[in-house]
Amino acid sequence: MSRTLHFSSPDGTSVSLGPGKYYIEQFGTSELRLTPEGDKPTVTILAESLTHEQYELFSAMALTRPQKNDEFLIELLLPGGIRLEARGSTKAPPDHTKIATTATPASPPPIVQEEEAPINGTIPAVISPQTHLENSGASAPHSPESPSLENTLLYHAPDSPSPATRVVVNESQPGRETVYLSVLSPDHIGLTMFEQPALFWFIAYPTSQPVDVMITDESHTQRLLDVRMLPPIQPGIHKVDLRDYGIRLQLNTTYQWKIVLQGLNPGESHTTSGWIMRVTPPDNVTTFANLQPINTTPTEPLLEAGLWYDAIWALSERLHTNPADTQALTQRAHLFEQVGLLPPAKQDRAHLPLP
């Protein structure tokens, strides 16, 4: 946390949390326990027991969210749909008494993004990856559609893709598996027509380190999301649903989102990032914007309109509903291949039945 926050303790007294880094965990049915970095005493704050819809959450996930009127939330999402929410304030109450500790000052947390929910994956390897910077000008093929299943979906990148760079962690070392960490985005600014879309990312190996997820605006002046997923984290495709965090994308505004895998030592983190913009869809697609759930949305018109994120979301939800949907698996793998995301495409194809 970057500033002092004020919460209520279980006995009703006021608690101050100073700037710094904290480890957060459930403590009882309606309490959160925070352990500051360094040799400082733990702090217990009052929390409300609620629910969340972050499907396939395999480990606890903590996040902070500023609200209106100086209110501030600390939330802990747990597997099984349980969410503990503590409501505090950036302003001390009039009768404020300092009971809690102030954490050791720490450098600002890494720019990261949120969320994720593993789907599948079986590529074990934990090695120190390096960052690979991809070209920003490539676009997806525009060849005529083939009647075969492989080419039933073709991604049509915007006619003039906005310049941007997708960053992927990709490294191979002798005697070890290839390390691969990537946001599942095109190599330019990807489009969505939704105010609260879902984003997906991929990790090709299990890790015992935490992963941070973050969304910022193009100028990096506004941080919409900054959450941490606690280990262990399984390999595979993970989901970040903006609806779970109350985040809304503004029309025609560009955002950068990042996934940061923390290292064993300071300075050893590894970051993958991509870009997203919400746009007004063409008339022939507008009617699909209100379809619920999204897995009922036809993906062909989405891809023809260049709505990458929406098409991947629709296919992923179909696979969540029916993991044996070979058509959705094949089509999603084909889309990954079109934008150079080969390891996640390989994983999808590995789950197809043998011919």
Structural features, described:
The protein is α+β, with helices and mostly antiparallel strands. The protein has 5 helices and 19 strands. It has helices at 283-286, 299-304, 308-321, 326-338, 342-350; strands at residues 5-8, 14-17, 22-26, 31-36, 43-46, 48-51, 61-66, 71-78, 82-89, 131-133, 167-171, 179-183, 190-192, 198-203, 211-217, 223-229, 236-241, 254-261, 270-278. Helix 3 runs antiparallel to helix 4 (326-338) and helix 4 (326-338) packs antiparallel against helix 5 (342-350). The protein is globular and about 60 Å long. Mean pLDDT is 80; it is low at 96-151.
* Percentage of residues in DSSP E strands: 25-35%
Which strand order does the major sheet show? 6-9-8-7-16
Structural class: alpha+beta
> Can you tell me the overall shape?
globular
Distance between the termini: 53 Å
Task: Set down the secondary structure blueprint.
Blueprint: E1 5-8, E2 14-17, E3 22-26, E4 31-36, E5 43-46, E6 48-51, E7 61-66, E8 71-78, E9 82-89, E10 131-133, E11 167-171, E12 179-183, E13 190-192, E14 198-203, E15 211-217, E16 223-229, E17 236-241, E18 254-261, E19 270-278, H1 283-286, H2 299-304, H3 308-321, H4 326-338, H5 342-350
Parallel strand pairs: 13-19
Antiparallel strand pairs: 1-2, 3-4, 4-5, 6-9, 7-8, 7-16, 8-9, 10-11, 11-12, 12-14, 14-17, 15-18, 18-19
Helix pairs in contact: 3-4, 4-5
